[in-house]
User: What shape does this take?
Amino acid sequence: MLEAMMQAIPLIATIEVLIIMLVGIPMGLMLGAIPGVGGMIGVGVLLPLTFGMSPVPAMVLLIAIYKGALLGGSFSAILINTPGEAAAAATCFDGYPLSKKGYSKKALQASIFSSAFADLISDIVLIIGSFALALVAIRFGPSQIFWIIVFSLLMTGCLTGPNLWKGLLSIVLGLFLGTIGLDPLLGTPRFGVIPVLGRLEGLELVAVLLGAFALSEILLNVEKTKKGETAKQLEVRRSLGPSLSLSEIRESLKAFFIGTVYGTITGIIPGIGTSAAAFLSYALARQAYGGKSKGVKFGEGAIPGVVAPEAGNNAVSGANLIPLLTLGIPGSAIAALLLGALVLQGITPGPLIFINHGPVVYAIFILMIIANILNLIYGHLLIKPITKLLKGNPSIIFPVVVLISFTGVYSINNRLIDLGVLIAVGILSYFLRKGGVPVAPMVIAFILTKMLERNFRLSLSLSGGEFSIFTASPINQVLIGLCVIGLALVIVQRFKEKKLLG
Amino acid sequence: MRNHIKANLSGFIIGIVGTLFGLYVYFIAIPSTIRMPTREVFFYQRPDILPKLLAVSIIIISIIIFLSTFSPKNIRTDQYIIDKHKFHEVILPVSLLMGSFIAYPIVFPLLGYRITSIIFLACLFLIFGYRNIFLLFTISIAVPIGLALFFARFLRVFLP
Assistant: This one.
């Protein structure tokens, strides 16, 4: 581990990496602050542009955008009551009331501090956790990997979105998209409705990612732009008010720890995501403080009400990469995009990643920690410019984003069919999202299809067609138990939610 | 019952479309597009095993979503309900945007990257309601040319 870390230092001590870090974080902050754009579009659009770069700068650029955007999302939540990122929705509860009272700066600083430090702790958990999990995962056979994928898919499908069945439909559609192209075992073309489609090894990952996240988001945004929903932006206040005091920081420490611990745990489990972590951290902090802090009720501008959700959603980001790096399983939409970037760079995530690409992985880890420190600095420096940016018209960005996506996807293989896939998946995702079907599970399932099918068929080949291989070993039994318990917990939770709603 | 369907229109539509799609995949797409190996293979080696399983799953889940629209507990205001007055604000720009997306790969081989992208970008700006003609033309010309140069110089990708 130490040796790999030493080998990582020359990879990060370059001018290119330094410039990327210095540019990437503020870019992410700006993108994250603009409602409707966010880190997803930022990472998605830059993804195809990174394939000409070497692995460390490419990954650092995307991670810097991601980390910056997570923090940037809270700026618009606090200043205009419109979260730039879905993850920052819970920050509106107390952030905006603080802003309305003339304490925007206090709320923004609370968000910057809690985000940067929670993210830092989560990254340390990632470094230790991923190495430990990789040591265990290296012993897994095809049947164990099959069950881990099933568990991830179940959790992602059941926990994303308000309706369990729509989540599962999204998973099945993703698996279906994953079967298009050559059969992984026999090489037979599948679903060549257009002949060229069947001859592909599979649909282009970047085209599916950008279609599902960027294009569908832009289609949804054209509605909002036309409906005039961006008019809210005029409400940005001129005065930012006083800074956060030491006693307020001390008062918020409990909320910070609640958010960080809960966010980190949430991040490791695939499918839960940043929004749920933020909302639950907020609810837990509210309970822990007895509904008010320093005489201010939660929901009316309590500073711990900003700290808890921000710590919660940022603590997800590091821990979320543990299943991605060690098992090759993306636990969230953004992890799926990062997986796409790793694959473009020729890095296959999995238990062997520390052996095959140790220095690159450790370089990414070190740069993630530096990115948190830069987030802290840039967050403070960019308060005023972002406030000005929020007064502008964000719709100018969307057409440019579309063109970059189209150009990027075409340039990967110089194939028009990839553009067709991008557009088809984009339109499909738009209708699915309009109908309340989440698209993140679809993309995660799409990515995992080949792995799932390969391990399923390989297990049966090894056992000579006997299904008992899936239940024989104690690890498999534990994994089946996890699937059953996870599913049962989700169903119980859904019933409770329905009862609560009357 | 009509009110339930109206309130859960997305579930109703997704249920029907999903079921029809699943049936199409199972009975038409799989037999016509997946060639089975000529030699005898084990069942788990068949290339159609996963697609068939998925088609059946799509049908089952779609039917459940369809049936759940009739449940009295399942009431939500639906995004699929379209206000007639919103045609110009929602349906028209979304359709135009989708139309221009589809037109791009069709026109691309005929006009090449630069000209197609300039026209495409200008159209997108207009759809998004951007009306500053000077900036519209400047950005529409500068961005595609800038991108083409960036790809050629830094990524060694030459766009046609």
